[in-house]
């Protein structure tokens, strides 16, 4: 039975500062590093030995994965990076303070931008500090100027199908170190969460989410390895 662990990066500097982050490459705080190491210890305690780790091209996810593998004594696990596991692109909200934005536009509007399934934030204006069009990590790619969770899923899912699912189907155990919304997209897909219920899924930072899958990659069991920091999970889908 293939095992999957989803690991959201530890606390980042902009998680701490409460700023819309998206594709901005902010690093972990000291607390975020500690969360990543604790996550690794929990992965080791669960007897999980991934055959491969997938991660995004963003430092906070890559470092979380590396710190977790290191503290689990699993430094030799091969790592595959891809931008399609990046955080959802926050468009024109990128870099703004979340509380100030709510004071300006209202809590309801900000909740729609943050947690609705298919309403994207306003697009990013081209040419500014947070325009990644000329970033070599995305050379030759058509990159978005904003993303909803739906359009995030639209780019995560082909990567899941082409790169990740084949490894699980071959019997490999897989660790994915990524981001709140790219992981919510994977959870939505695996658990078949209805569009209007994904708003209730919040993945805590640095808390490994173990999902046991059947041969069709349908979840048959799921739990956060740090039960004290767990959040509600969607019901298991019918097999
Ligand atoms: O700022 C972001 O990129 C994300 C994740 O931290 O925030 P949110 O909680 O709004 O999805």
Write the layout of secondary structure elements.
Blueprint: E1 3-8, H1 13-17, H2 30-45, E2 52-55, H3 59-71, E3 79-81, H4 98-105, H5 107-115, H6 149-169, E4 174-178, H7 180-191, E5 209-213, E6 219-224
Parallel strand pairs: 1-4, 2-3, 2-4
Antiparallel strand pairs: 1-5, 5-6
Helix pairs in contact: 2-3, 4-5, 6-7
The structure holds 2-phosphoglyceric acid (2PG).
Enumerate the strands of the largest sheet in spatial order, edge to edge or round the barrel: 3-2-4-1-5-6
Label the CATH architecture of one domain.
Answer: 3-Layer(aba) Sandwich
The dominant shape is globular
Structural class: alpha/beta
The major sheet is characterized as: 6 strands, mixed
Round the mean pLDDT to the nearest integer and report it. Answer: 97
Keywords: Gluconeogenesis, Glycolysis, Isomerase
GO molecular function: phosphoglycerate mutase activity
Protein name: 2,3-bisphosphoglycerate-dependent phosphoglycerate mutase
EC number: 5.4.2.11
